[in-house]
Amino acid sequence: MEKTWRWDFDQDRDGTVPSGFEVIWGDWVVRADPAAPSLPNLLAQVARFPEGIHFPRCLVKGLHLQDLRMSVRFRPVSGECDQGGGLVFRFQDPQNYYVLRANALDDFGLFKCVGDQRWPVKRYYVRSDEWQTIMVECRGPLISGYWNDRLLIEVRDETFAAGRVGLWTISDSVSYFDDLEITALE
């Protein structure tokens, strides 16, 4: 039987880390925003790392999944080097995981981080600085990536079979997230 979890961050207090989440890196805070897809709040990653490549992550506490479907509303707000954000899944530790992300300055892509080295698995060249929906579905080694309800990425990768789940950004990106939904698939 499938089980689904949803977060719209509207029950959390402005300026706090949302309940049920663990910050791995960065400054993740709930913010009231009149432009949030579901009012009144969203989750913002506001730390800026202007030098070097850093990967702020915020994980759901206690959720470890194999087959899954995850989606989130995402909007890049600012960044000179990057304006990216996305879904981290099958997270083993800060050096080993997958991420499906969109970057307003570059593309939409699936990456894997192995031993702290990030590798593109597949990329598709679309970009937007507006609110967009990012979704990933994993069934065994098959990984499908959707951007605004369009299937753009289909790959087979057996590097990680299961792991934790959450949200991700890069370097100097300030990014907003809303309406995170995670479903455990059978």
Summarize this, please?
The chain is mainly β and about 190 residues long.
Give an account of the 3D structure:
The protein has 186 residues and is an all-beta fold. Helices cover 0% and strands 60% of the residues. It has no helices and 15 strands. Strands 1, 3, 4, 6, 11, 12, 13 and 15 form an 8-stranded antiparallel beta sheet that branches. Strands 2-5-14-7-8-9-10 form a 7-stranded antiparallel beta sheet, with no helix packed on it. A hairpin with a 2-residue loop joins β7 and β8 (96-103).
Structural class: mainly beta
Number of strands: 15
CA-based shape: globular
SSE arrangement, N to C? EEEEEEEEEEEEEEE
Topology:
Layout: E1 3-7, E2 21-25, E3 28-32, E4 41-45, E5 57-65, E6 68-78, E7 84-93, E8 96-103, E9 108-114, E10 117-124, E11 132-139, E12 142-147, E13 150-156, E14 163-169, E15 174-184
Antiparallel strand pairs: 1-15, 2-5, 3-4, 4-15, 5-14, 6-11, 6-15, 7-8, 7-14, 8-9, 9-10, 11-12, 12-13
Features:
eight-stranded antiparallel beta sheet; 186 residues; 60% strand; 0% helix; mainly beta; seven-stranded antiparallel beta sheet
